[in-house]
Design a protein that fits this description.
Elements: H1 12-18, E1 22-25, E2 31-34, H2 36-39, H3 51-54, E3 55-59, H4 66-70, E4 77-81, E5 87-94, E6 101-106, H5 111-118, H6 130-166, H7 177-190, E7 194-202, H8 204-211, H9 213-230, E8 236-241, E9 244-250, H10 255-269, E10 273-275, E11 278-280, E12 283-290, H11 299-315, E13 321-323
Helix pairs in contact: 8-9, 9-10
Length: 335
């Protein structure tokens, strides 16, 4: 390795400054001196202790004695400490006048872990050591990565909030038309049975005309609370415009539960709603249909049938519910 194996003569103070991770070994392999940074790796001072009691040379193999180490001066060494398992790299060279060895060590790629484990700072490295620049780069990268993580988190929360707002009716907090359209398309795609309920308020115009639009808004919010209370967690309840609401019931194939639900909703909606010292009164007409009543559920057809059933309920006197017959095979006629 050329000049690396020639004896050198530098005072201990100069070695501490230029090589803060050096070791000075006497001819018997005992540690005669240690750089200040290397000293921090040990609970007790390594000075006056045999080198091979504290370090293991992993590469090149076969270096287990002071003589074997002295025979490999100028060769790149890979070592670990025996107590803490710190990985080190280094090179040995004869000391001035051949009285032992001088080893200069470094952390190599394990410098980041060493800094964290032993609380090292840039003052623990030689001013010319590239480890200092590496530490700065790592700190900068960590700071940038953390800021990007926070920014991505804020953007993701803003995206979810925007999506939620785009699917929510601002007045009532229920889903809106867009949301229930998406839910209907999704349940059709799963081929699971489902029920559909279309609700329209009766006498809502009279409330607006008599008490004003603020009263109408209060009525809509009260009806929304009724619908939310009466439906299941997995159901979709939406205000689709004005005083119209729609409910989707995934997994429902029996008309009996939907009829009972409609009766409860109609009874609750009919209760007086206090407003501004007065009382608002409305009722609910409901049209219903079930996907199992169709050979192949067609969303447009089902929506039309629920709407037709709704107006049949209004014609029947309002405040009632009508179930559509759907498009069962026995209802089809050959052309």
């Amino acid at each position: 390795m050329g000049n690396l194996s020639k004896p050198v003569g530098i005072g201990a103070g100069g070695l501490d400054l230029l090589m803060p991770m050096h070791l000075r070994l006497d001819p018997l392999g005992e540690i005669a001196g240690c750089g200040p940074t290397l000293r921090k790796l040990f609970a007790e001072s390594p000075v006056r202790r045999p080198f091979f009691d504290l370090f293991k040379v992993r590469r090149p193999t076969g270096i287990e004695t002071p003589a074997a180490l002295a025979a490999r001066t100028g060769v790149r060494l890979h070592l670990t400490t025996l107590d803490g398992g710190v990985s080190l790299r280094g090179v040995a060279t004869p000391k001035h006048e051949g009285r032992g060895l001088l080893l200069n060590l470094s952390f190599g790629i394990s410098v980041i872990e060493a800094v964290r484990r032993h609380g090292l700072t840039d003052g623990d490295f030689a001013p010319t050591d590239l480890a200092v620049e590496l530490l700065y780069l790592v700190e900068a990268k960590t700071a940038v990565a953390e800021e990007l993580r926070r920014l991505n988190g804020r953007l993701e929360r803003a995206r979810r909030l925007a999506e939620e707002e785009a699917l929510t009716d601002e007045l009532t907090g229920l889903r809106n038309r867009r949301a229930i359209d998406q839910a209907l398309e999704a349940v059709i795609a799963t081929r699971r049975p489902f029920g559909l309920m279309h609700l329209d308020l009766d006498f809502f115009k009279e409330v607006n005309d008599s008490f004003g639009h603020a009263a109408g808004d209060e009525v809509l919010r009260a009806v929304a609370q009724v619908l939310s209370r009466e439906t299941r967690t997995g159901d979709t309840v939406a205000r689709i415009g004005g005083d119209e609401f729609m409910m989707l019931f995934p997994g429902l194939s029996d008309p009996a539960p939907m009829k009972r639900l409609a009766a409860r909703v109609i009874a609750d909606v009919a209760r007086p709603i206090p407003f501004g010292g007065g009382v608002c009164r409305v009722s609910a007409s409901i049209g219903m249909t079930l996907s199992v009543r169709y050979d192949r559920p067609d969303l447009a057809r089902m929506l039309a049938d629920a709407d037709e059933a709704l107006y049949a309920a209004k014609r029947a006197g309002r405040g009632t519910a009508v179930l559509s017959e759907g498009m069962r095979p026995e209802r089809r006629r050959d052309p």
